[in-house]
């Protein structure tokens, strides 16, 4: 597809230099997890596609049907798990499962459990010609409770799930050599440092 796509990760450090007026230049803006609860003064509240992991799926489902549908209205929702995808669909939210893309990443890399941002970028690069990426620092600013997220972004980081930021970074660098992915601002600085 020829739409101009922007993926924005949740790192406040990697978004310091981002000009949010640039959102108007994109046909699609994609985000992750609990972005929709971030402080809109910081993040500008545009989200056309949201990729959600298990934690964020539970978070949205815990709101109840009416609140969840209101929160996610006008947003294409892509879910990491068949189980949560089924629950969301039963509550009236049309969502799609991205388990195939997760399997493709695992089968073509050393990643045991890809971060949702990695899955999102892979998915977008698979279906769209051009993807710009910002707002990811690959946990260089800290990990777990020390991570620097935009205000209001909720997470439940667990080291035991097989996540490895370095493996995700290596995978995305390799992917950017075969797909049209442009890393922007601080994200570009980090990627360039590791090439």
Structure report:
It is a single chain. It contains eight helices and seven strands. With 195 residues, the protein is an alpha/beta fold. It has a single domain (4-194), classed as Alpha-2,3-sialyltransferase (sialyltransferase cstii, chain A, Alpha-Beta Complex), CATH 3.90.1480.10. A seven-stranded parallel sheet has the order 5-4-3-2-1-6-7, sandwiched between helices. Helix 4 links the parallel strand 4 (76-79) and strand 5 (95-97). The chain is globular. The protein starts with a strand and ends with a helix.
Key words describing this protein structure:
195 residues; sialyltransferase cstii, chain A; seven-stranded parallel β-sheet; 8 helices
CATH architecture: Alpha-Beta Complex
| Tally of contiguous helical segments | 8
Oligomer: single chain
What does the largest sheet look like? 7 strands, parallel
Which blocks of ≥5 consecutive residues have pLDDT under 50? Answer: none
**CATH level 4 superfamily:** Alpha-2,3-sialyltransferase
| Helix fraction bin | 25-40%
| Total of domains | 1
Q: Strand pairing plus helix content: what structural class?
A: alpha/beta
CATH fold-level assignment: sialyltransferase cstii, chain A
Question: CA-to-CA gap between the ends?
Answer: 28 Å
- CATH class category name: Alpha Beta
* Strand composition percent: 5-15%
Overall 3D shape? globular
| Physical arrangement of strands within the biggest beta sheet | 5-4-3-2-1-6-7
Mean pLDDT: 84
From the alpha-carbon coordinates, what is the Rg to the nearest angstrom?
Answer: 16 Å
> What is the ordering of alpha helices and beta strands?
EEHEHHEHEHHEHEH
